[in-house]
User: Fold this.
Amino acid sequence: GGAGGEMRTLVIFFDEVNTCNSMGLFKEIVCDRQVEGKPLPPNIKIIAACNPYRLRTTKSLYGGEEMAGLVFEHHVAGQSENVGSGIKDPLRNLVYRVHPLPESMIDHIFDFGSLSSETERLYIMAMLKKQLGNYNEEEEEETNNTPGVFAYTYQRMTPFEELVDVFTDLVCAAQECIRDLYGGERSSASLRDVRRCVDIFKWFGEHFHKNKEIYE
Assistant:
C-alpha cells in the first residue's frame, strides 16, 4: 500500500505471449482480468507484447529450415522412413514460431509495425554511443576558427564521434545486406544483433590492447 492507505499501481508486462501454447490463460488475464476465475486486484495493470503471425516469403539463406528441430517429421533424401516422431510441425512456415491469438484479444492489439531505416539508424547510433563510451577520451568538443572577411566557427567531429558515425554506417549496411539476402524480411536482423556486434568489437579491442606487444 501507499501513503494514506492508497494502493500503488503495479504494471505487469508479459513478453512474447503468443510463443507459448497457453493462449487461453493469457486471454483470461488480458481480456477478463482474472486468473482461474479469480479477479485481479484493481491496482494491477496488464501489458503484453506478441510477435506477428506472418508466413515466410523465402527459405533460409543456407536452406534446411525444414530439417531444424528434434521433434517433428523430417524427410531425408533417399530414405523412405521419417526421422523424428512423424508429427508435422504446424509452425514451420512462420517467420516467428507463434500461436494464433484468440479472437477476443484482437481488439486489444496495437500494431507498432517495424522501424524505418532512418529511425533504426538513430537507435543504432545511440546504442553505439552508450556501449562505446569508454573509448571517448574527448572531454571538450573541438572547434576551429577559420579566418576570413566573415570569420565563423564550425564544429569538427571528434575521433570518438567519427568512430560512432562510421560504425553506425557499417552496421546499418550489414543489417540491410542480411535482409536483402532473406528476401527483404525485416525480422532477419534486429537491434539484438547490434549489441552482439559491439560486444565482439569490444572483446577484440581489449584483447589487442592487452597483447599489443605481441602484435607490434
